[in-house]
Design a protein that fits this description.
Elements (H helix, E strand, L loop, with lengths): L3 H24 L24 E9 L4 E8 L10 E5 L8 H6 L4 E3 L13 E3 L9 E5 L9 E2 L6 E3 H18 L8 E6 L2 H17 L8 E7 L5 H5 L2 H7 L5 H11 L9 H14 L15 H9 L5 H4 L24 E3 L2 E4 L14 H7 L2 H6 L5 H4 L10 E3 L7 H9 L3 E7 L7 H10 L4 E10 L2 E9 L3 E6 L6 H4 L1 H13 L4
Parallel strand pairs: 3-6, 3-9, 8-13, 9-10, 10-14, 14-17
Antiparallel strand pairs: 1-2, 2-6, 2-7, 4-5, 11-12, 15-16, 16-17
Length: about 500
């Protein structure tokens, strides 16, 4: 007969496997929504480096408004690593832009050729942000990318409605994935996401204050080359162009005198003439990266460079070491430095140049995302229902209704203790870093980490300055508008350091 202590020991021993199983189950992700697991990706050979999920979250049942997401679980520790939402800008750019060209798990292989027939090959991106975080790519608002509404009037939208829908998406998404509710949550993005992110953060913070469930564990946000403040952003182009040697001192002095330092909005006739001259001088540049060529056509570019007598150092301007090529770029129309915002309607933000994206081509992404086998694999609706995928869509009629400056939002959130990283590719003529630095300084925060270089591989990778209230400004040397595209190694490095709270 067993003594009571022995009985207890035997019972504990018998229960050990069950306890171990329960302990292990606590660290394993809960089953995702039915049908959202991505089992394969056409164009990619081999096992996925982590679990992938994708599908739709309905944000308005009555109107059939549905937002599309793609989740890439962290390759390191999905149960503990942060959940990071990624938003591309526009307004109207699909976040698959970031997925396939910037910080996503794949890129298009060198063998892929637009117009060559067949499906483009995918290669693993060794510098994907999912190395250290769970990444959620969201197409927002409805009408962008794979997101859609059955009521086409929803395609008339603006900043505030977009933020509200994205907040609804997050609440429902965390209900679908309760295993991530305790993970640190950050919002990230670039370009017009400089508007998307603060307005969405405002919705999230208000939801936290109202004790909405599930509670979103927001810790902060990071924005790359973000549109932020009309006065500082729009007035930065001319000084940046002069500082980078793109226009002469004579022209700079002439336009500065005629325009009295204001280069957008309702300006005098003489000022407008000078601005038009600046436009003309810059019209053939790749405004997303002044170092990068503005290709006339992908095939022509390859042939020209193959037979070119130009030194290899010039041919590689704007490129970086990565296993797949930077996206093809094509010549676009000239673009004005000024913007027009009438009755809240965003008729032009300087990054857009109207309804075209100069120097860009999305042929490879279009070929892949318009393939019905790919759409079935990622659980996206077919073209017959939502149309072709577009990197930048003209489907939406968008209103900029959140005000001329996001600075008030940044002051609010940093004062509340949220961490904020503002980073800039220093060769971007779209949202120049000098305007970004200027609006940050306008906040009046005390500098606690004076301007200094930051390093990667014992080389200067850019410069950084730290402010009180958890605000950091960072430049990336040689990068353009889409920083992870041009400097993927350096970007993953500062991203990893910042997420972990290490000094950059």
């Amino acid at each position: 007969m067993l003594l009571p202590r022995a009985v207890a020991a035997a019972a504990a021993a018998a229960a050990a496997p069950l306890l171990l199983l329960l302990a292990l189950s606590a660290t394993v992700a809960v089953a995702a929504p039915d049908g959202h697991l991505v089992a394969r990706l056409p164009g990619f050979r081999g096992a996925l480096p982590s679990n992938h999920y994708s599908g739709y979250v309905t944000v308005d049942e009555a109107r059939g408004r549905r937002l599309f997401y793609y989740l890439v679980e962290s390759e390191r520790d999905p149960t503990a690593d942060p959940v990071v939402l990624w938003l591309n800008g526009g307004p109207g750019c699909s976040s698959f832009d970031g997925f396939v060209y910037e910080n996503g798990p794949f890129g298009f292989g060198r063998a892929a050729r637009p117009g060559g027939g067949g499906l483009p090959d995918l290669e693993l991106n060794p510098y994907t942000w999912s190395k250290v975080s769970n990444m959620v790519y969201l197409d927002s608002p409805a009408g962008v990318g794979m997101s859609y509404s059955l009521n086409k009037s929803d395609y008339t939208t603006g900043d505030l409605k977009t933020a509200a829908d994205a907040h609804t998406f997050l609440l429902k998404w965390f209900e679908l994935y309760p295993e991530f509710q305790s993970n640190p949550f950050y919002i990230s993005g670039e370009s017009y996401a400089g508007i998307y992110i603060p307005t969405l953060a405002d919705e999230v913070v208000k939801g936290i204050e109202k004790n909405l469930k599930p509670r979103i564990n927001l810790k902060g946000y990071l924005i790359g080359n973000g549109a932020t403040d009309h006065e500082h952003d729009f007035n930065s182009f001319v000084p940046f162009a002069h500082g980078m040697g793109l226009i002469s001192s004579e022209l700079f002095e002439g336009v500065s005198t005629a325009c009295h330092g204001t280069f957008w909005g309702n300006v005098s006739e003489l000022c407008q003439q000078k601005i038009d001259k600046v436009d003309w001088e810059l019209k053939d540049l790749n405004k997303y990266n002044i170092l990068a060529p503005c290709y006339h056509h992908p095939e022509i570019q390859e042939l020209e460079f193959k037979n070119s007598s130009l030194p290899s150092s010039f041919r590689k301007l704007g490129e970086t070491e990565r296993r797949f090529p930077v996206r093809k770029r094509m010549a676009g129309r000239s673009w004005p430095l000024r913007a027009a915002i009438t009755d809240g309607r965003m008729t032009m933000w300087p990054e857009l140049g109207g309804r075209s994206l100069p120097c860009t081509s999305d042929e490879l992404a279009n070929a892949w995302l318009d393939d019905e086998d790919v759409r079935a694999a990622i659980h996206a609706e077919p073209k017959s229902l939502i149309g072709s995928w577009e990197l930048y869509t003209a489907r939406i009629d968008y209103y900029h209704d959140s005000g001329s400056s996001m600075v008030k939002y940044h002051k609010k959130f940093t004062a509340m203790g949220y961490r904020v990283l503002i980073y800039s590719g220093d060769h971007d003529l779209c949202i120049p870093y000098v305007g970004t630095e200027a609006w940050i300084r306008s906040m009046g925060y005390r500098v606690i980490d004076s301007w200094r270089p930051w390093y990667f591989g014992e080389q200067v990778a850019g410069y950084t300055e730290g402010y009180e209230h958890n605000l950091t400004f960072l430049t990336i040397k040689g990068a353009g508008h889409t920083v992870p595209e041009y400097k993927p190694k350096e970007t993953l490095e500062f991203y990893t350091r910042w997420l972990s709270g290490e000094k950059i």
